[in-house]
From TrEMBL:
Its EC number is 2.4.2.14. This is Amidophosphoribosyltransferase. [4Fe-4S] cluster binds at C246, C392, C442, C445. In the C-terminal section; belongs to the purine/pyrimidine phosphoribosyltransferase family. The keyword DNA damage does not apply. It comes from Proteinivorax tanatarense. Pathway: Purine metabolism; IMP biosynthesis via de novo pathway; N(1)-(5-phospho-D-ribosyl)glycinamide from 5-phospho-alpha-D-ribose 1-diphosphate: step 1/2.
């Protein structure tokens, strides 16, 4: 049995609260602030100390929660999840948190990341009689937990996670405990916050800010935190010397107001722009960025080159992400719907346009065309990341290899394909310089060097 690594990964956000009288409002606000991590489905599970209750559905957080009767979901402990996946579809079965009963009692699970051996494990479990309700990796973890020989939850978790390989930032809850675990390489983020007597765990620190909590620290790679009425306990259950935090979290995925490894995401993006200015300068009259994810890098490049920054591209905030439109025609229309050019800003000018990444090339091609139609004399494209040449199997949707522009073309071909006057990317080494670290980042989508062994072999 081979794991199908061409299936699309899931991008998700998780949020958990312990200790409030009524956790439902915090769960809702926390998920709203993590909405950028997944727009396909949302859900929460709340415990009143006796019973776990779930509310989830397909759609944005606001849509899913419009019929949420919070009075029926009173509890001191809860977890929430937002999800986006192009595989498994948006069916209700794939919505999380996953609520299940096992020999250890009632439990719920919310997962961000992708397991690279999920298909193999699923096949083995099915051979042994397990019945699956969804197509997501998280259900594999639930089955492994319920089959573990250990009689306590912590032991069952250690045994289940000992069998999985890949990326996971995981929240688990029972009637009276909240457990947070991060994979041994720390691929996906997970932070711990505190507000009075409450503990909060979230994918990003921006979700702590919205509920008025302070960041305590990141959950360490391989660490399991257990929060109960006894307080907070932690244990390193999955040791690895290696670290592989996803560089795409810094480049594109996370919100600029979040911090990881003591570094603010906006500041890192701005540094990436400065590094672009240092190694890949261009001659231009103005620098502009593609709202929102490349604005920080564009500001850094403008500062580095000493060229004025201008807002030439305006985004319609009420249109969803172009990337998730299933057809190529839909994607192109999506860019038009989403962005417009202020012609008077660019007319007759040499424009340096910064974007955070080129995946299929749809966005850059369309924007160069729009800028030229708007009267730009030249358009020089600078990308604040290396070329994406390999798909991510660990939780970011970077498309399959055949669709990746950089996997199949030279720099010259890419420049032609997007019709730019010049094009430059960061190298993986320059990316490290911009982030301000020597190593410890996963750059598999740029190098093909995956931090975990791919496929079915242990
Ligand atoms: P593409 O148009 O296919 O080249 O995709 C690149 C554009 O999509 C850039 O403007 C990025 O900001 C954005 N992008 C990059 N990675 C992702 C992702 N995983 N999900 C959604 N959008 C993305």
């Amino acid at each position: 049995m081979k794991d199908n690594l061409d299936r699309m990964p899931e991008e998700c956000g998780v949020f958990g609260v312990f200790g409030a009288k009524d956790v439902a409002p915090s769960l809702y606000y926390g998920l709203i602030s993590l909405q950028h991590r997944g727009q396909e489905s949302a859900g929460v599970v709340v415990s009143d100390g006796k019973q776990l209750k779930s509310h989830k559905g397909v759609g944005l957080v606001d849509e899913v929660f419009k019929d949420f009767a919070s009075s029926q979901y009173k509890g001191h402990l809860g977890i929430g999840h937002v999800r986006y996946s192009t595989s498994g579809g948006g069916s209700i079965e794939n919505c999380q948190p996953l609520l299940f009963n096992c020999k250890l009692g009632q439990a719920a699970l919310a997962h961000n990341g992708n397991l690279v051996n999920a298909q193999t494990l699923r096949h083995q479990l099915e051979q042994q009689g397990s019945i699956f309700h969804s197509t997501n990796d998280s259900e594999v973890i639930a089955h492994l937990l319920s089959r573990a020989s250990s009689d306590d939850l912590e032991g069952a978790i250690a045994s289940a996670l000992g069998q999985v390989r890949g990326a996971y930032s995981l929240l688990l809850m029972t009637e009276d405990k909240l457990i947070a675990i991060r994979d041994p390489l720390g691929i996906r983020p997970l932070v711990l916050g505190r507000k009075d007597d409450q503990y909060i765990v979230a994918s990003e620190s921006c979700a702590l800010d919205i509920v008025g909590a302070k960041l305590v620290r990141e959950i360490e790679p391989g660490e399991m935190l257990t929060i109960s009425s006894e307080g907070l306990e932690w244990d390193n259950i999955l040791y690895s010397k290696k670290r592989a935090f996803c560089s795409f979290e810094y480049i594109y995925f996370s919100r600029p107001d979040s911090d990881f490894m003591g570094k603010n995401v906006h500041t890192v993006r701005k540094n990436l722009g400065k590094v672009l200015a240092k190694y890949h300068p261009a001659k231009g009259d103005i620098v502009t960025g593609v709202p929102d994810s490349s604005l920080s890098a564009a500001a850094g490049l403008a500062e580095g080159l000493g060229i004025p920054y201008e807002s030439a591209l305006i985004r319609n905030r009420y249109v969803g992400r172009t990337f998730i439109k299933p057809s190529q025609e839909g994607r192109i229309a999506g860019v038009n719907l989403k962005l417009n050019v202020i012609n008077s800003v660019i007319k007759g000018k040499k424009v340096i346009m910064v974007d955070d990444s080129i995946v299929r090339g749809t966005t850059s091609r369309k924007i160069v065309e729009m800028l030229k139609q708007g009267g730009a004399k030249e358009v020089h494209v600078r990308i604040s990341a290396p070329p994406v040449t390999h798909p991510c199997h660990l939780g970011i949707d970077t498309s399959s290899q055949g669709e990746l522009l950089a996997a199949n073309s030279s720099l010259e071909e890419m420049t032609k394909a997007i019709k730019a006057d010049s094009l430059a990317f960061l190298t993986p080494k320059e990316l490290l310089e911009g982030v301000g670290v020597k190593d410890g980042l996963c750059d598999a989508c740029f190098t093909g060097k995956y931090p975990v062994k791919m496929g079915c072999c242990k």
